Amino acid sequence: MSNVPTNEIIRTKCNTGQLVITDKAIKVETKWIGQSTKMLSRDRIIGVDIMPYPKVLWIGGKYADLTFYGQGSEVIKAQIVKIDVARQIVEMLGY
């Protein structure tokens, strides 16, 4: 990816740190030592899955897991994302 500045569209919490959607990429910025930020260029995304938590769990109905699929074997997962934000992201990306 080039060094062209990107515009941040959405930033929200997830299980490992922050899920960041920019006009050029999807990133999961980690807060844990020893883990690296994962990034996938938006033009390489071929699919997105949203998996809401069942209402039987304490987080049920409030949170979901997102999985972004890129070309080849590229996959980025963001877990425990607020459900309304997760739906907004899926709709924005057109899936």
Mean pLDDT: 90
How helical, in percent, are the residues?
10-25%
- Tell me the series of helices and strands, N- to C-terminal: EEEEEEEH
How many domain regions? 1
What is the rounded Rg? 13 Å
According to DSSP, the number of beta strands is 7
Summed up, the helix count is 1
CATH architecture: Roll
Give the amount of beta strand, in percent: over 45%
Structural class: mainly beta
Distance between the termini: 23 Å
Q: State the shape.
A: globular
CATH class: Mainly Beta
| Main beta-sheet strand count, sense and barrel state | 4 strands, antiparallel
Q: In which order are the strands of the major sheet placed?
A: 1-2-3-4
> At the fourth CATH level, what is the homologous superfamily?
Pleckstrin-homology domain (PH domain)/Phosphotyrosine-binding domain (PTB)
Which regions have little confidence, pLDDT < 50, spanning 5+ residues? none
Layout of strands and helices, then pairs:
Layout: E1 8-14, E2 17-22, E3 25-30, E4 38-41, E5 45-52, E6 63-70, E7 75-82, H1 83-93
Antiparallel strand pairs: 1-2, 2-3, 3-4, 5-6, 6-7
